[in-house]
Amino acid sequence: MSLQPTNRPVERDAIAPFLLRVYWQQNREPMPTDFSVAPPADTTDISDYSSLLPLAIRQKSVIIYSWSDCSLAELTGLLTMGTRLVYKLVFPDTRAELREGGKGKWVDKPLGSVVVGGNEGHFNGDEDANGGVTTESLGGETGRTLGDARFVIGDYVVCTIYPPGQDGRIAAMPPSRGPPRMDPYAARGPPPPRESGYGSGFGRGGGYRGGYSGRGGGGFGAAPPVGDWRRGERPPPGSNGGGYGRGRGGRPY
Q1: Yes or no: is domain 18-172 CATH 3.30.200.20?
Q2: Where is the composition biased (Gly residues) (predicted)?
């Protein structure tokens, strides 16, 4: 179940936090394919999928315990080595079929951008002298939270760090990335949005791992039922999906 946005503050002293992994790269946007790793045949001794990721990715990561109201300003406090930080969610596309070698398809969704030192101006490099970067020194979408993005526990947060230019100016926002060239999976189009999360980014809600074949007959070939329902709930009666609990073992996500 994805986290739900709320205007009420989270009672952090009363609610247990969850583990969050944040991966970062400098001057290079982390790609969803970086996180697609085929698990071995024997997974007995593997308790965490992230341990299968390449060492180069695991070395550039931080692990924290946080809550649904964790904001981009808080995450930026962990990564203060640049001037512009662009955040995204990365998660497996449960609608896509497995690729060659047993690798799944991973997609990303924009979270927001934060600027250390404000939206305009030069980078003065004196945050250590001022006792660290404070929220007052941050610009951009600092107030967006994991709950706003319908974060699902187990998703990854990735961050691209853009240091200031040679003239000291803050790096510009990078252009939007289109689907990779020669990617046969890109022709399928983006998966459905995540349970009405903000923006039009990729999502996971209501999808089958095997995709919709349109062949009829329930199971993996059936489209999801219509109506107001969420992952893990029983579909409403009279829906035309007909695929849950029948056919080839389809199950809601």
Answers
A1: no
A2: 198-221, 239-253
Kindly state the average pLDDT of the residues 239-252: 39
User: Is residue 120 scored above 60 in pLDDT?
Assistant: no
Q: Domains of the chain: which residue ranges?
A: 18-172, 206-253
* Separation CA 4–CA 69 (nearest Å): 10
pLDDT at 231: 45
Q: What is the pLDDT of residues 82-108, one digit of tens each?
A: 578 899 999 988 888 877 777 888 899
